[in-house]
């Protein structure tokens, strides 16, 4: 089992920045990918970004490219999401997720690919 804990959310004005952290504990050594998703009330959980744990390769949803940067610190078992030039439409609850290597029919952008989830953290961007 892997436990994930997000931190760093809050309220920020449009154009501002926040950095989210996701600390993994438990059997985190088997982590293959870690992703960030976000969700607003009444809507599905949407993909934001993913990092491949060993290589560091990242991939982003189109609306955040050039504004968000995902990274990881293997030694600390922590992933980060640096969010710059925030917009009101970025307001959501952000979730960290992790998955081990293994056969899966789902893309890394699909929430069903992920086994472990954090509780989520609120990000609110005011206009």
**Binned strand content:** over 45%
The 3D shape can be described as globular
Based on CA atoms alone, the radius of gyration comes out at 14 Å
Structure summary, number of beta strands: 11
SSE pattern: EEEEEEEEEEE
- Percent of residues in helices comes to under 10%
Low-pLDDT sequence parts: none
Q: How far apart are the first and last residues' alpha carbons, in Å?
A: 40 Å
Please tell me the overall pLDDT.
Answer: 95
Number of helices: 0
Biggest sheet features: 7 strands, mixed
Structural class: mainly beta
Question: What features would you describe in this structure?
Answer:
Strands 2, 4, 5, 6, 9, 10 and 11 form a seven-stranded mixed β-sheet that branches. β7 and β8 (78-83) form a beta hairpin. Helices cover 0% and strands 53% of the residues. The model has no long low-confidence stretch (mean pLDDT 95). The chain contains no helices and eleven strands. It has 127 residues and is mainly β. The chain has strands at 2-7, 10-13, 18-26, 31-39, 46-52, 58-60, 68-73, 78-83, 92-100, 116-117, 121-126.
Outline the fold blueprint:
Blueprint: E1 2-7, E2 10-13, E3 18-26, E4 31-39, E5 46-52, E6 58-60, E7 68-73, E8 78-83, E9 92-100, E10 116-117, E11 121-126
Parallel strand pairs: 2-11
Antiparallel strand pairs: 1-3, 3-8, 4-5, 4-9, 5-6, 7-8, 9-10, 9-11
Features:
11 strands; mainly beta; seven-stranded mixed β-sheet; 53% strand; 127 residues
Quick take:
With 127 residues, this protein is mostly beta strands. It contains no helices and eleven strands.
């Amino acid at each position: 089992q892997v436990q994930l804990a997000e931190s760093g959310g809050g309220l920020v004005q449009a154009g501002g920045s926040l950095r989210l952290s996701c600390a993994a504990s438990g059997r985190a050594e088997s982590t293959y990918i870690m992703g960030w998703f976000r969700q607003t009330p009444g809507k599905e959980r949407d993909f934001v970004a993913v990092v491949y744990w060993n290589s560091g390769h990242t991939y982003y949803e189109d609306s955040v490219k050039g504004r968000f940067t995902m990274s990881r610190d293997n030694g600390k078992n922590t992933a980060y999401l640096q969010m710059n030039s925030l917009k009101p439409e970025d307001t959501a609850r952000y979730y960290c997720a992790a998955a081990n290597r293994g056969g899966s029919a789902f893309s890394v952008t699909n929430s069903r690919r992920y086994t472990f989830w954090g509780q989520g953290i609120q990000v609110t961007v005011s206009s």
